[in-house]
Amino acid sequence: MDITQQGSAERDFVELDRVAVHESLRLVDLTRDTDWERDTPCAGWTLRQLVAHMAAQHHGFAAAARGAGHRMAYWREPADMTAPGRTYRGAATTVLAAFAEPGVLGREFALPEIGGEFPGRLAVGFHFIDYVVHSWDVAASLGVALDLPDHVRGAALAVARRVPTDPAGRGPGFAFAPVLDVAAGADPLDEALRLLGRDPDKWPLPS
């Protein structure tokens, strides 16, 4: 996938990612103690498990931005998820600080879960689309609205259109499920979600 060749190639992926991560923080902050065992669009994961995964990815990408992404310890889910909101906020703060460092888009990121090293702009783009989708996952689990600006939704769609669709790389054990049909006239977020295997019809959000 080459997200650097899209029409919005000059858009700052660090800023796009920051907006997506802040939205995920807002949504996690809405979660009550009784919500953590809710089901999520991620099959087999409760909201607590989803947020643990999200926190691990933040720490992993932060380490990758600082040259230590090859160390698998950074990608492990937190051992203590008794306070998921606090744990998640700490992880989000870590990755936002790492991505805000000067020159981050010009660095090489080791991403062992994807396989190999990637230019910073591409790696931050991976993180960005992941947190647009995971923000939607949290919103869907809670049954609340997702608040992302139109330009962020449009950028997410541009990235989603470049994610490989080969069925051999989709499904259990991979980042995204198989592609779903996209209706004509679908809005950008709906199309992006379907391209990445999420079904908005099964998890409708309030307007």
Automatic annotation (TrEMBL):
Name of this protein: TIGR03086 family metal-binding protein
Source organism: Streptomyces sp. R21
InterPro entries attached to this UniProt entry: CHP03086 (IPR017520), DinB/YfiT-like (IPR034660), Maleyloyr_isom (IPR017517), MDMPI_metal-binding (IPR024344)
An example molecular function term from Gene Ontology annotations: metal ion binding
Residues of the Mycothiol-dependent maleylpyruvate isomerase metal-binding domain: 20-139
Lineage, highest ranks first: Bacteria, Bacillati, Actinomycetota, Actinomycetes, Kitasatosporales
